[in-house]
Design brief:
Order of helices and strands: HHHHHHHEHEHEEEEHEHEHEEEEEEEHH
Strand content: 15-25%
Largest sheet: 8 strands, mixed
CATH class of the largest domain: Alpha Beta
Helix content: 25-40%
CATH topology of the largest domain: FAD/NAD(P)-binding domain
Mean pLDDT: 96
Bound molecules: flavin-adenine dinucleotide, iron/sulfur cluster
Structural class: alpha/beta
Shape: globular
Number of helices: 14
CATH superfamily of the largest domain: FAD/NAD(P)-binding domain
């Protein structure tokens, strides 16, 4: 697969900046879940006032470079007025490029903020937990983050490195991590969040959706979950045909990763129409560009293990006006797969009964979302703590 550059060249950055119409109504800012202000940082960048541009981005977005690489085009870009003339400004990529090229320790200096003595526990070091920690530290709270895995970033770590290198998550973190106020405990799973209330004033639960939805079909055990696949990808290196069940952006990452790891072909099985796939236009074009087969209106029925391959039995679906139903007698056997990956969604752990000292944030609160929505949710959780103490 051909590698794409993650950042804009200086010439492309200038060309994008010059296209901004400086709209007074700032639709791009209003469309951003964290209210980042592209209008403002683009203006600073046009005048080559890079430190101001960097600070504008970081004022509302603690993970601006990561967001710049993976934010979908449904927020700022969708609202960009420029699309009424030709096509929207690639705001996320402009943001990522400014932070990559112009953010350094001289531009962003840690502020010395006095501690207020209050202690907050955060469970989960994904974008929601990290965003909550930085907002609380900026307001004088002492924060401890408990993370089950051995690294920060949560579900972001499943995104292929060609799209999001892990170093970028670490780089964002290095600029917001107030080491005096925030302690990070990796490899530390919390099994009883209520027990933390003995030592902490409040607990923010930001544990994402760690449970994969299962297919509930015979032979499911011959398939692999997207979490296992994307976390241990080298284990599943294959040269044969790969099936991906699902049609969202996680399934898309699985399909492209399989090709990257040597699959001879990849076919995605999507329950609804191809037109209903919840992916961005660039993601869709990437699938087509790489020759991924898209089988719309199909569902898996059974998986069987053969001597040298897996058989996937699928049926066709029809829409009966209310929901998708299997079309009778439409089952066919596809006997040639070396790997079947299931990527049809995930679920949060069960919520605890209401407690004013327990606050949920991110995907575990809202259901599967996007990085920038998880960050907005983490900041909102921190704001609840501030309001409570005001
Ligand atoms: C393959 C894939 C591709 C994606 N692509 C995009 C994209 O292109 N653009 C985009 O905007 N979004 C994308 N997303 C979605 C995005 O990653 C999530 O919306 C976001 O990470 C949610 O953040 P969160 O902090 O709520 O939860 P998470 O990121 O899931 O973080 C939760 C953290 O909590 C930890 N945890 C769980 N239980 C415990 C416990 N009991 N004790 C301690 N720690 C615990 C987990 O280990 C994890 O680190 C993608 C997701 C996946 C899986
Ligand atoms: S909407 Fe687009 S053109 Fe208008 S200010 Fe924002 S980035 Fe510039």
């Amino acid at each position: 697969m051909k590698e794409k550059s993650l950042y804009l060249t200086k010439i492309k950055l200038k060309a994008e900046l010059d296209r901004c119409l400086n709209c007074r109504t700032q639709p791009c800012m209003n469309a951003c879940p964290v209210n980042c202000n592209p209008h403002e940082f683009i203006q600073f960048a046009q005048m080559q006032q890079w430190p101001e541009a960097v600070r504008t981005i970081m004022r509302t977005n603690p993970m601006g470079q990561t967001c710049g690489l993976i934010c979908p085009d449904k927020f700022c870009m969708k609202s960009c007025t420029r699309s009424q003339i030709d096509f929207p400004i690639n705001i996320p990529r402009v943001q990522a490029t400014i932070l990559e090229n112009y953010r350094n320790r001289e531009v962003i200096q840690p502020e010395a903020i006095e501690s207020n003595g209050k202690r907050i526990a955060i469970i989960g070091a994904g974008p929601a937990g990290l965003a909550a920690s930085s907002r609380l530290a900026q307001n004088g709270y002492l924060v401890e983050i408990f993370e089950a895995s051995d690294r920060i970033g949560g579900a972001l770590n499943m995104i292929p490195a060609e799209r999001l290198p892990h170093e970028v998550i670490e780089k964002d973190w290095s600029f917001i991590h107030d080491t005096e106020k925030v302690s990070l405990h990796l490899n530390h799973r919390i099994t009883d969040p209520l027990s933390l209330l003995t030592d902490f004033d409040c607990v923010i639960i930001a544990t994402g959706e760690p449970n994969c939805v299962s297919l509930r079909i015979p032979g499911e055990e011959y398939s692999v979950s997207y979490m296992d696949y994307l976390t241990n990808r080298e284990k599943y290196r294959t040269s044969g045909a790969v099936a991906v069940i699902g049609g969202g952006n996680v399934a898309t990452d699985c399909a492209l990763t399989a090709l990257h790891l040597g699959a001879s072909s990849v076919e995605m099985f999507i329950r609804r129409r191809i037109a209903d796939m919840r992916i961005s236009r660039p993601e869709f074009l990437e699938l087509l560009d790489h020759g991924v087969n898209l089988s719309g209106m199909t569902s898996p029925e059974k998986i069987e293990r053969n001597e040298n391959s897996l058989s996937l039995f699928i049926h066709r679906n029809v829409f009966d006006g209310q929901k998708w139903q299997p079309l009778p007698d439409s089952t066919i056997e596809l006997p040639y797969f070396s790997l079947v990956i299931r990527a049809i969604g995930s679920r949060a752990d069960e919520k605890l009964p209401d407690n004013p000292r327990i606050i949920y944030a991110g995907d575990c609160k809202t259901g599967g979302s996007t990085i920038v929505e998880a960050i907005a949710s983490g900041r909102a959780a921190a704001d609840l703590v501030l309001e409570h103490d005001a």
